[in-house]
Amino acid sequence: MFRQRLIGATLLAAIGIGGASAAQLAQLQPGQRPAAGSTEAELWYGMEQAEKQIRQSPSVVRDPALQAYVEGIVCKIAGPHCGELRVYVVDVPVFNASMAPNGATLVFTGALLRMRDESELAVVLGHEFAHYKARHSLEGWNSAKRTTAFLGTFGLVTWAVGVPIAGDLALIGGMSSLFKQSRDNEREADQLGFAAATAQGYDPQAGVRIWERLRREEKADRTHRDHAVFASHPQSEERIVDIRAAAASIAPGPASTNAEVYRAAMRPFQEKWLASELSRRTYDTTIQVITELQQDAPPETKALYTFYLGEAHRRRNKNDDKAKAAALYSQALAEPQPPPAAWREQGMLLRDQGDKAGALASLRRYLEIAPGADDAALIKHYAMKLESTP
To answer: Residue 156: what pLDDT?
Structure first.
């Protein structure tokens, strides 16, 4: 797990400006490859070199069940193009997904954490597939070749809000944000992706739900930075209006969300992804994200989200955050299946507040249910000090 506050990168800084318009090109056909020696072949070659490195990256989540699940949705959306696409779920705690012109598809764990059901994932993947099929990535490629960013055979220009990154994480960040699109291309991808998802019976309101949540997350950011969560998918009220209008155009009828299937597929990773989200240290937006996750959570994960919401408040530590954290820890412990760490954090807060008996009870409970925890010796030491203090 890495601890950069945000990942933002681009392989070619000038991509997306100038060049021949991709709108003039016919859509990519199943099995079609670019003509040898063409600009498009050059673009594919570059992506293939990048993909070789990503394939070996330790940031790729190598879980067969999760891989099969996400691949299955990609194939459902892509239809006859399925065999041309390769999916990489990558451990990056921001919202993003991308599909390179050669079919390499990246899905960030930060996106999987924020989604609620399969229909939302289908809409996002449909949007990325639309960029791939419409060959939008050719726009700006010729102009990019004339920039210094292209020199040195795909040299990386990387940044992370003041924290430099390198290696595979830079490559993953760069590959995902390389294809920043024009508003026209984004509008076309929204339309085509929406059509691809609803053609498979997915809920037409899925796009409305997810983009409105992302807009609320953006607004929660008090620094007003252009975070990587929106770097390659610019948000606007106009865009959300368009998505709402598209959803309203679908006649009412049966629609699939597959929410329970989605939750089951993501459940084994939720705690790790929540910890990664906290590691960003963007607590205002993280509190917004986890608050909505906690409100929407089914009973079996309510305690987990409640605890991590408490953790976000504790770590931000502004105004009444400690009091909110204490209340959330207690709430988590009252829910089914609370994470063991909730006992530990409640015990440490009670210790700081001078409640020796309450702190001891909570710390002992933590040691009882998590005897092999990495910090068990330290927590045992704290408990012994409390016991020996008059």
So the answer is: 36
Which pairs with CB-CB distance under 8 Å and at least 24 residues apart come from 382-390? 382/347, 382/348, 382/351, 386/351, 386/356, 386/359, 386/360, 387/360, 389/356
**How far apart (Å, rounded) are the C-alpha atoms in residues 218 and 212?**
10
- Rounded CA gap, 231 and 209, in Å? 19
The per-residue pLDDT for 146 is 56
Residues 330 and 353 sit within 8 Å (Cβ to Cβ) = no
Contacts of 208 (CB under 8 A, 6+ apart): 240, 243, 244, 247
Could you tell me the residue ranges of all domains in the chain?
8-248, 282-388
Residues of the chain with confidence (pLDDT) below 50: 1-23, 148-166, 176-177, 226-232
pLDDT at 231: 46
Distance CA 334, CA 277 (A): 24
Measured CA angle at 242 (ends 240, 245), to 5 deg = 110
pLDDT at 5: 28
Q: Which of 159, 225, 193, 178 is nearest to 46 (CA)?
A: 178
DSSP character for 326? H
Q: pTM of the full predicted structure?
A: 0.85
Q: In what order do the strands lie in the sheet containing 97-99? A: 86-90, 104-108, 97-99
The phi, psi pair for 45, rounded to 5°, reads: -60, -45
User: What is the CATH T-level fold of the domain 282-388, as seen in this structure?
Assistant: 1.25.40
- Alpha helix segments (H runs only) across the chain: 39-55, 64-78, 109-114, 118-133, 141-145, 151-154, 167-177, 183-199, 206-220, 237-248, 259-266, 270-279, 283-296, 299-316, 321-334, 340-352, 356-369, 376-388
Bridge partners, 158 (sequence order): 9
- The span from the CA of 320 to the CA of 164, in Å, is 33
- Give the phi and the psi of residue 164 in degrees, each rounded to 5: -65, 145
**DSSP string for 300-314:** HHHHHHHHHHHHHHH
Distance of alpha carbon 313 from alpha carbon 77, whole angstroms: 39
* CA distance linking residue 4 with residue 253, whole number of Å: 44
Please state the separation of Cα 105 from the chain's center in Å.
14
7, 186, 226: which is closest to 96 by C-alpha? Answer: 7
